[in-house]
Amino acid sequence: MLSHSRCLSRTLGRSLSALSQGNNVLAGRTASGLSAGSRVLYRNSPSRSESLSSVVFHVRYFKTSAAHRDGVVTVNTPPFSESITEGDVRWEKAVGDSVKEDEVVCEIETDKTSLQVPSPAAGVITELLVPDGGRVEAGNPLFKLKKGAAAAASVPAAEAPAAAASVPAAEAPAAGAPPTPAAIPVAMPAVPPVPAQAAQSKPVSAVKPSAAAAEPAAAAHGARTESRVKMNRMRLRIAQRLKEAQQTCAMLTTFNEIDMSNIQEMRKLHKDGFLKRHNIKLGFMSAFVKASAHALMDQPSVNGVIDDTTKEIVYRDYVDISVAVATPKGLVVPVIRNVETMNFADIEKTINGLGEKARNNLLAVEDMDGGTFTISNGGVFGSMFGTPIINPPQSAILGMHGIFDRPVAVGGKVEIRPMMYVALTYDHRLVDGREAVTFLRKIKSVVEDPRVLLLDM
């Protein structure tokens, strides 16, 4: 009888040990990444003929997809174009902000354009891996995102320690005790009694103004302040290229004036029909772009460039015109390609599309690469006269200005005509004065009488 009891006790001890080992396996698997929804089943299936010592415990794991649905992903810097290797980050969102799918989180400013980085999924930003204004290369990690709709409603990770610290130590549950839900307050907290010293307040005249209150008073008395803002990469690159142009090119500028009466009359007469046919407005820019292409084919040296490496002159039999567009972040010059094959409608559509992309910060590097000649229209800002700077590696740039009514001599009489000054800045190493003046006169003749294009004169 005593021997049978010892045997039964030994068997029961082995069973409990096996059960403990199964729990340890469960804990190890849970720590290795299983979600909280995993379950463990212990199946005890001995037959009646088997002894108690042959009990077998089977452990089964069931993994849910909660960990994958609410996972944290790292978003890397997208690839740049071939001519760009790095850029500066400008954050649009902060840690803890909720974002939607494809919502812009940051912009990467490069030498030529800005690249927007959207969120790959809806969620909450948990960490920014690059400081604002930091430099990144393609493939560098940018930020971490906690995906899932539930993540948007969760408390940011940065606020979790503060929330935990606000819980009084006395309310912490005892070790081993199950957590109890927080009690919901049903009454307003009691108002603390006001100390007697507070009743003896100082008069208003005795209170000295604080530093924050003194700032508006200082500003009202004409205080002089200044602020410093870091230059973005696009502005730095523009400054560098303009300075290089001054140091490399022998720049010279020649001028002429254009009577805009005929082109204004043509626009007034055909603008409604042009809009109905092509679904776009007829402007003056298309006339100057087409006139420039006509003049560039007539004067190849203005459309050429000096290769300083090989000491050769490169002449082009095509015309790609860069149109300068001012944006809040700097001057960009998208390119209209093969202008010599376009008509007014094609040019207007291309200009409108490039201008829309520039305003929405969607210009790609490919939209600004190349260009054999540049047109800068300062007239949209009311400019009357100016000397543009060459856009390297080009050899010339045309500057347009505002249209103003001025008295001019027409047929021996003084008449008031809408006039525009135009300026051509060119590299005198390649373009001679005769060619530059002929180029401007060709543009003048085409704009003043567009029928010259039909006659190829």
UniProtKB/TrEMBL annotation:
Source superkingdom: Eukaryota
Kindly state which keywords UniProt assigns to this record, in alphabetical order: Acyltransferase, Lipoyl, Mitochondrion, Nucleus, Transferase, Transit peptide, Tricarboxylic acid cycle
Give the GO cellular component terms, alphabetically. mitochondrial matrix; nucleus; oxoglutarate dehydrogenase complex
Q: What class of enzyme is it?
A: transferase
Q: Which residues form the Lipoyl-binding domain?
A: 72-146
Q: Name one GO molecular function term.
A: dihydrolipoyllysine-residue succinyltransferase activity
Task: Give the EC number.
Answer: 2.3.1.61
Q: What is its main location?
A: mitochondrion
Pathway connected to this protein? Amino-acid degradation; L-lysine degradation via saccharopine pathway; glutaryl-CoA from L-lysine: step 6/6
Q: Which Pfam families match?
A: 2-oxoacid_dh (PF00198), Biotin_lipoyl (PF00364)
- Which cofactor(s) are needed, names only? (R)-lipoate
Q: Which InterPro entries match?
A: 2-oxoA_DH_lipoyl-BS, 2-oxoacid_dehydrogenase, 2-oxoacid_DH_actylTfrase, Biotin_lipoyl, CAT-like_dom_sf, Single_hybrid_motif, SucB
SUPFAM superfamilies given in the database record: CoA-dependent acyltransferases, Single hybrid motif
Q: Name one GO biological process term.
A: tricarboxylic acid cycle
Task: List the subcellular locations.
Answer: Mitochondrion matrix; Nucleus
**Family affiliation:** Belongs to the 2-oxoacid dehydrogenase family.
Return the NCBIfam families for the record: sucB
Q: What does this protein do?
A: Dihydrolipoamide succinyltransferase (E2) component of the 2-oxoglutarate dehydrogenase complex. The 2-oxoglutarate dehydrogenase complex catalyzes the overall conversion of 2-oxoglutarate to succinyl-CoA and CO(2). The 2-oxoglutarate dehydrogenase complex is mainly active in the mitochondrion. A fraction of the 2-oxoglutarate dehydrogenase complex also localizes in the nucleus and is required for lysine succinylation of histones: associates with KAT2A on chromatin and provides succinyl-CoA to histone succinyltransferase KAT2A.
Q: What is this protein called?
A: Dihydrolipoyllysine-residue succinyltransferase component of 2-oxoglutarate dehydrogenase complex, mitochondrial
Q: Which organism's genome codes for this protein?
A: Salmo trutta (Brown trout)
Organism placement in taxonomy:
Eukaryota, Metazoa, Chordata, Craniata, Vertebrata
